[in-house]
Amino acid sequence: xxxxxxxxxxxxxxxxxxxxxxxxxxxxxxxxxxxxxxxxxxxxxxxxxxxxxxxxxxxxxxxxxxxxxxxxxxxxxxxxxxxxxxxxxxxxxxxxxxxxxxxxxxxxxxxxxxxxxxxxxxxxxxxxxxxxxxxxxxxxxxxxxxxxxxxxxxxxxxxxxxxxxxxxxxxxxxxxxxxxxxxxxxxxxxxxxxxxxxxxxxxxxxxxxxxxxxxxxxxxxxxxxxxxxxxxxxxxxxxx
Length: 240
Hints:
By secondary structure, the chain is of the alpha+beta class. It is built from two helices and 16 strands. It comes from Cardamine amara subsp. amara.
């Protein structure tokens, strides 16, 4: 008879899920989707202890603050919801894409931001543009009386005025924050030859955002559930 005592892995609880979770090392080859940010799982993570339950969380999603102050919506704090507050998929006010997982929400304004979008870098550098791009929280055309609309300089699609943009004011160059890749060559590809879906590109971009969040949490030694993102802008965006 085997006299060894069974080894029980420690488990933890998270308010987003009814069952206990345990630490899990995820590989991208497994193609597992995080139940929080709905992006590909890689690195340290958590999974449900129930073998028949496919619930997974990035460690960064597990550790998300319950409330944030974000300068994209400075009038009210944003509260973390573990599912859509509307009973159906929501539309992210940052990137314009749908979501059904975690969201930062303002109930007064029905303003929603993917948890990954909330932490994207404020500046990025593209290989196809000589200057650094700065994150702005609406297109440069918002509020113009001449009816001008902003067109993404990568995909050439018209952007809704309220969407966030990575923008170079000097060159009037701007792109979507996710659906247009930042770190890849942008030469068009024939269908079937390495074509990448917009969702895959969003996953790639938000992996950078998660790294930024982790580094920021270490730098600031966060000890409570409220964090403030960024100072007030040091300049104004003015368009004639």
